[in-house]
Amino acid sequence: MQTIYLTQPSESYASQVMDIRKEMLASGDGFDGCGGLEDTESFEEWINFEKRLKLKYKNGYVPSRIYLAVRKEDGKVVGIIDYRSPLTEFLLKYGGNIGYSVRPSERGKGYAAEMLRLILPICRDAGEKRVLVTCDKDNVASRKSIVKNGGVLENEIQDVSDLSNCGVIQRFWIRL
Known about the structure:
This protein is an alpha+beta fold. The protein has one domain: Gcn5-related N-acetyltransferase (GNAT) (Aminopeptidase, 3-Layer(aba) Sandwich). The protein is 34% helix and 27% strand. Strands 1-2-3-4 form a four-stranded antiparallel beta sheet, sandwiched between helices. Strands 5-7-6 form a three-stranded antiparallel beta sheet, with helices on both faces. It is globular. The mean pLDDT is 94.
């Protein structure tokens, strides 16, 4: 796997972020950890996370830090990851502290596990002692990425929120 780093979104990545959006829409993927990218038509609209997401989620809004995963070798954005805190009742049950997506054309290369590894020190520096990461029960790749980073399965829950594809969400805690 080529090395990646996390960086905050900026205008210099605008076209790549919108390319990820197109790629994920074309493949029918969810946009976990992408700051509502699926709901926007332009980078300028997407980058205004706080204002846009506060309007969408109202009292359920939780501040999040969104990062792009960039491959060092060529500067290609391979994924998006976010860290959310504090956990609302909804996030505690279904969504967790961290959400992430790897663009479809870059999957199977270990980027999700590396993205998760890179965000954990950010969570620790923010005062977290442990973080919750969730995934669909049938998302084997995500589960492996979580476990590789120390995730311990707490339980599986029926998804009544319609977030998952299979109807069951696995909840993992990672101690920092």
